[in-house]
């Protein structure tokens, strides 16, 4: 039992809000205080799956995944919608020139968010490689403190848990966070015909002080459009 978890009677335990758990608690409380808005979009990733299967993978390289595609789509959309790639500090919205994506990684003790620097310049294969390395380094406790600093936007993926949707909490001073759900087979109507498609729910939470609903919706639709037309993931922002 860790030092943060203390026995509290037979069959029960108490978890002190200190250390990593305390840092998470303080940050989540700050994020919850923001006037946040959540909106969602259903994305058909059937074409994205097929595109991934067609990608060649070098020996020793990480196999590209839907998560890497979401990161690439998000980075491209942020480069095109800089109001979402911003930090809110002292009542000033600071739009950032580069896209530094925070990637939420779950640990037994809590949640850590290592950062992929200059994500808008990196192809899907490289993002897959960095994602795997950062997740492994985080779980092993081998990353330096600077690896968790400087994110301009966060992506959190709970698809592996099988959930259909969720609304993540902002990671201040960032003004936006994107939640990604599981990919599930659904019946959809296309051109009057019913077919099966691989669908996922994208949930954007944003700080309404920094950005309004319409431009936020445009950003979310841009992420969706990139995922549904995966050839666009090879382009430049």
From TrEMBL:
Keyword terms of this UniProt record: Acyltransferase, Transferase
UniProt keyword Ion transport present: no
Gene3D superfamilies from the UniProt entry: Chloramphenicol acetyltransferase-like domain (3.30.559.10)
A Pfam family matched in the record: 2-oxoacid_dh
Cofactor dependence: (R)-lipoate
UniProt domain 2-oxoacid dehydrogenase acyltransferase catalytic: residue ranges: 13-233
GO CC, any one term: cytoplasm
GO molecular function: dihydrolipoyllysine-residue acetyltransferase activity; lipoic acid binding
InterPro entries documented for this protein: 2-oxoacid_DH_actylTfrase, 2-oxoacid_DH_E2_comp, CAT-like_dom_sf
Protein name: Dihydrolipoyllysine-residue acetyltransferase
Organism: Alicycliphilus denitrificans (strain DSM 14773 / CIP 107495 / K601)
């Amino acid at each position: 039992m860790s030092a943060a978890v203390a026995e509290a009677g037979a069959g029960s335990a108490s978890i002190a809000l200190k250390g990593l758990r305390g840092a998470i608690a303080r940050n989540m409380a700050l994020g919850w205080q923001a006037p946040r808005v959540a909106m969602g979009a259903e994305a058909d990733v059937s074409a994205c799956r097929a595109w991934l299967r067609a990608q060649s993978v070098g020996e020793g390289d990480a196999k590209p995944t839907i998560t890497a595609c979401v990161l690439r789509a998000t980075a491209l959309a942020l480069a095109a919608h800089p109001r979402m790639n911003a930090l809110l500090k002292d009542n000033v919205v600071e739009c950032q020139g580069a896209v530094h994506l925070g990637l939420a990684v779950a640990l037994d003790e809590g949640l850590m968010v290592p950062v992929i620097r200059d994500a808008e310049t990196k192809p899907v294969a490289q993002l897959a490689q960095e994602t795997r390395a950062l997740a492994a380094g985080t779980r092993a406790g081998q990353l330096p403190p600077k690896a968790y600093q400087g994110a301009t936007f966060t992506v959190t993926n709970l698809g592996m848990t099988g959930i259909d949707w969720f609304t993540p909490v902002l990671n201040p001073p960032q003004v936006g966070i994107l939640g990604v759900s599981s990919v599930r087979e659904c019946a959809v109507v296309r051109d009057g015909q019913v077919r099966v498609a691989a669908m996922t729910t994208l949930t954007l939470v944003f700080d309404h002080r920094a950005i309004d609903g319409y431009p936020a919706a445009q950003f979310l639709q841009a992420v969706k459009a990139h995922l549904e037309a995966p050839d666009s993931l090879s382009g430049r922002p």
